[in-house]
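[retry 2/3] Glycosyltransferase: previous attempt timed out, resubmitting with same input.
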Amino acid sequence: MRVVILNNDFRVYWKGRLVYLRGYLATQGIELNALELFGKGSPYAFDTVNSAHNWWGCLYPDKSAVDIQKQELKKDLFAQLDKLVPDVIIGPSIVFFAGALGIAWAKKNKKKFIMFDDARPAQVKRNAVVQWVKNLITISADALWLPTKSYDTDYAMFRAQGVHFFYGFACIDNDLFKTDREAHIVDKIIVCVARLVPIKNLHGLLQAWYDIEQQDTGYRLMIIGNGPEEELLKDDVQRMGLTSVLFIDAVSNDELPAYFGGAEAFILPSFSETWGLVVNEAMASGLPVLLSRTVNAANDLLVEGVNGFGFDAFNTQDIAKAILRYTELPGEEKRLMSEKSLEMIDNMSYQKMGFQLKDALQHVAVKPYRKPDLVAAVIIGRWHGRYNTAGWDKL
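[retry 2/3] Glycosyltransferase: success.
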């Protein structure tokens, strides 16, 4: 079986997943190829396009989505897929170019299509017509690859139409982040790793931290990342007279474990996160987690009082309360929280991702071709997707 996985770009977290899946699926008689559309324009601009593997290509390594006409993109992508002739295409939500054109090629050639998505529909602002179009096309997919079973209720209408569900792609290389915490000098640091953009709610975090400093806890707040709000956030620190806040520029995944290893806990105060893979990284490092309840990962990876605490991102007093609940714990309870984070994140690993994808591919391979109805077929043929990331930075 030959499989092609498409995305507008494969940066940061996808890189390790793809390398693992390529090797694992090969042992199961499945050939995986990866194709990303654009080398420029990623929200993760600090990361570079892959060039190390001959099974992993980029259609336009020196261009972004705004540089390419949609018809040209469709022609070039279809030509590349015609050469690869996959049995199954895996792609993102059909609102994006890679998903829309991936399912269009699959339906044209009577092949199978699997869609991965980590956004809950209620989190995404769409008008009724756009949502109707997305639903109509998605029903024609053979399978949905979701982060966890907690997403089932959000996508129930597709299961009712016979779309197969499986899980597990919201994972990271846990082994990369695991450290011997007893061998490290752990400071009284609560670390936050995030892009410095409005949706991450770092202004709210700093307001909450003002209350923490009034309690003289001895803890410091370390914020790792960069972005357009950097100067505004530093102005907040000066205006409030905060003395225990440290900013660190964005670091690579290879460097991040050292920062986690020296911290005591992790906090993510975002107003919204489709998942929040940095939570996986923190837990794989053995950190208790303090999470906004609007971070989707919190639904599956946070057990209140067991491996951390949740809070209302829109209430700075609630953020401060969660931080203080953690800082006031006895040392033994903090250690137990650390152990629970490690234990829980083992349920979301590359290995489990590979098993579930292999089973899903074998499942859809023997199922009959899902022919879209007439209206869906017309829309699939004409819809090219888009690449609008404006909503990624603001609520």
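[retry 2/3] Glycosyltransferase: The first strand starts at residue 2 and ends at 7.
[retry 2/3] clearing retry counter.
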